[in-house]
Amino acid sequence: MTQLHDNIYAFIWESMTVNNCNTYLIDGPTRVLIDPGHEHLFEHVLKGLENLDLSIEDIGLVICTHAHPDHIEAVKLFKNTPALFSIHEEEWKLVKSMEKHINISLKADISSFSPDFFLKQGEFSINGLEFNVIHTPGHSPGSISLFMPEPKALFTGDVIFKEALGRTDLPGGSGKILKESIKQLSELEAEFLLSGHGEVVSGSAEVKENFDHVMRVWFNYI
Which residues pair with 122 in a beta bridge? Predict the structure, then answer.
C-alpha cells in the first residue's frame, strides 16, 4: 500500500504471473474504493486497509471502472456491508447480456451485487469529494475514468497505462473508440495517472509524456 497524496492510497498489484488489478482508496468523509479486483486476491487490499486501521466495513462506496472480472469480482465481498456499488449503465448492460456466462465464471449470481446507482458523464460529488466522471469506451463499452480536480488525479481503469493501452479484443472493444477516449483524457491537466495495471505515473510533465508516447507508438497498432 502506497500513499500518493493526503487522501489517496494505491494498492498496486505487482505479480508478473497472476493477473489482478490495482485498487485505489480515497479517504474522506465517505471512503471510496476504486476497482476492488479479484475476490480470491483481495487479501492484499485487506492488509493495506488494516495498515490504515480500516476494514471493508469502513468503505462507503465501491466504484468499478468497468466490469471485467479482475476489476469487479471482489464487489461480492461488500454485499453485507454499508458500501454502495456503482458503475456505468452501459457496462452493466453488457454484464446483463452475458449474465449466464458471467455467473459461471464468477461462481455467483451477479444480481446479488447489482449497482445501487449508475455513474454518468459529468460532475459527481459524494460528501465533499469531487469527481469528473468521463465515459471512456474502447476497452469496454461502459468503461469510465475518474478525474479529481484536487489533487488532479486521473483514474483510468484499463484505458491507458504507463507506456501502454488497454486491449480491444474483448466483447465490446474497439481500437478506434479507444483512441478517441485516450485523446479525450490527454486534454486533462493531471498530476497523477492511476491506471488499472502497472505503475503510477506522477508529475504533470510525466503524465503528458506518457500520453504522447502511447499515442505516438501504440496508436499505429489498434
Answer: 133
